[in-house]
């Protein structure tokens, strides 16, 4: 019988790649949608006929419980939540509600559906939590691995850290197969335009086509470990297929700067970034994390996971995709 997966945040970048990947593996895939979400007008429009849907809100435990009861999944991938870090200073409480408490509500739904308590030994639904490198924040060691100390630097990072700890706590308390992937930045042509890589590749294409002249950016020296989202969803799936549940860091292990991203994207469309990029102090964050770089050795060794695209190939692919899309209207 086909395995069943339930994905929250299915209309997001990662949700769309994960749904494609799981459908390709023969899974029956369910997506959790918010009340106002229209899948036909989202990144999964091309998959709508192959998916099943159920509606739930992350601040409503009963709706999450009934979503789990309806889908009866073998695996749950929790990708829902606020993902754009800067706005979380303005919506700190909402971010905590969804990215933090939402994880607890989902774990409780699983516990109830599977009938688990302190005396039971797990079983039932396997759970994946989307943890983030933002939990490391003000880094004490580089590169960061699974046991590096967390020092989050935004309400987003703090809420994700709660989600991470409560997932491990349910694993240890109830024997649940519940794991977190500590994912470093991952990008693609489906990335939201507010994130810096896509903001840059879209602007390079728009400037090339004469639709725009300048690109305003914040900290050009900020460095990140950027990988390809299509690779990262494969790691999520692998994490739920292991004999023993445990957390993994997923990243490329290489660091690049915002400046370098601009150089590659503009070069890809035949332009010089220095003619178009303007530094805007308003785009600099209140508490920045400057050097986040993964040590993915555990994922390499235990999951056999490796990224398929280099950073340069990733940014080139994104810039080319944007130029193609904007040229053809
Ligand atoms: P990040 O991604 O905050 O790392 O979180 P983002 O692309 O927004 O920022 C990356 C770095 O670029 C610097 N920067 C700018 N960022 C944006 N968005 N816009 C700008 O104009 C700009 N100029 C410079 C930022 O200061 C930052 O240092 C992403 C999200 O996907 C999270 O949800 C996820 O958890 C982490 O990655 C891992």
Largest sheet: 7 strands, parallel
- Contiguous low-pLDDT stretches (5 residues minimum) are none
Tally of strands: 13
**Helical amount among residues, as a percent range?**
25-40%
Structural class: alpha/beta
Distance between the termini: 43 Å
Instruction: Evaluate the radius of gyration.
Output: 20 Å
Q: Would you tell me which CATH topology of the largest domain applies?
A: Rossmann fold
**What small molecules does this complex bind?**
guanosine-5'-diphosphate-rhamnose
Major sheet strand order? 3-2-1-4-5-6-11
Shape: globular
Mean pLDDT: 95
Describe this structure in words.
- With 329 residues, this protein is α/β, with parallel strands linked by helices.
- Helix content is 38%, strand content 15%.
- The chain contains nine helices and 13 strands.
- Strands 3-2-1-4-5-6-11 form a seven-stranded parallel sheet, with helices on both faces. A two-stranded parallel ribbon has the order 7-10. A two-stranded parallel ribbon has the order 8-13.
- Helix 1 (13-24) packs across helix 6 (229-239), helix 5 (196-208) runs parallel beside helix 7 and helix 7 (258-268) packs across helix 9 (311-327).
- The radius of gyration is 20 Å and the shape is globular.
- The N and C termini lie far apart (43 Å).
- The model has no long low-confidence stretch (mean pLDDT 95).
- The protein binds guanosine-5'-diphosphate-rhamnose (GDR).
- Guanosine-5'-diphosphate-rhamnose (GDR) is lined by residues 83, 85, 132-134, 184-185, 194-196, 199, 217-219, 222, 224, 258, 283, 285, 288.
- It catalyses: GDP-alpha-D-mannose = GDP-4-dehydro-alpha-D-rhamnose + H2O.
- One of its GO terms (biological process) is 'de novo' GDP-L-fucose biosynthetic process.
- Its cofactor is NADP(+).
- Its EC number is 4.2.1.47.
């Amino acid at each position: 019988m086909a395995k069943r997966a339930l994905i929250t945040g299915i209309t997001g970048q990662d949700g769309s790649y994960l749904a494609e990947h799981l459908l390709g593996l023969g899974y029956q895939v369910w997506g959790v949608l918010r009340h106002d979400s229209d899948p036909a007008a989202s990144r999964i429009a091309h998959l709508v006929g192959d998916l099943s849907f159920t509606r739930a809100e992350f601040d409503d435990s009963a709706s999450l419980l009934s979503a789990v009861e309806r889908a009866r999944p073998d695996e749950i991938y929790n990708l829902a939540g606020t993902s754009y870090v800067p706005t979380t200073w303005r919506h700190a409480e909402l971010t905590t509600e969804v990215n933090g408490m939402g994880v607890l509500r989902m774990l409780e739904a699983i516990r109830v559906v599977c009938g688990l308590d302190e005396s039971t030994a797990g079983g039932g639904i396997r759970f994946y939590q989307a943890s983030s490198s933002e939990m490391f924040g003000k880094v004490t060691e580089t590169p960061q691995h699974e046991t590096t100390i967390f020092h989050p630097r935004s309400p987003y990072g703090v809420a994700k850290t709660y989600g991470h700890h409560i997932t491990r706590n349910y694993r240890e308390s109830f024997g649940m197969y519940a794991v977190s992937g500590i994912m470093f930045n991952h990008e693609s042509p489906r990335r939201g335009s507010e994130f810096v890589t896509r903001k840059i590749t879209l602007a390079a294409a728009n400037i090339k086509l004469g639709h725009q002249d300048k690109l305003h950016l914040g900290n050009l020296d900020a460095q990140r470990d950027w990988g390809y989202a299509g690779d990262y969803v494969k790691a999520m799936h692998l994490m739920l297929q292991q004999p023993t549940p445990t957390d993994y860091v997923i990243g490329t292990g290489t660091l690049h700067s915002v400046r370098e991203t601009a150089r590659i994207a503009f070069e890809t469309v035949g332009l010089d970034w220095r003619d178009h990029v303007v530094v805007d102090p308003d785009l600099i964050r209140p508490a920045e994390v400057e050097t986040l770089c993964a040590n993915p050795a555990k994922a390499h060794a235990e999951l056999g996971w490796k990224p398929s695209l280099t950073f340069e190939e990733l940014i080139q692919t994104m810039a080319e995709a944007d130029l193609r899309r904007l040229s053809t209207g």
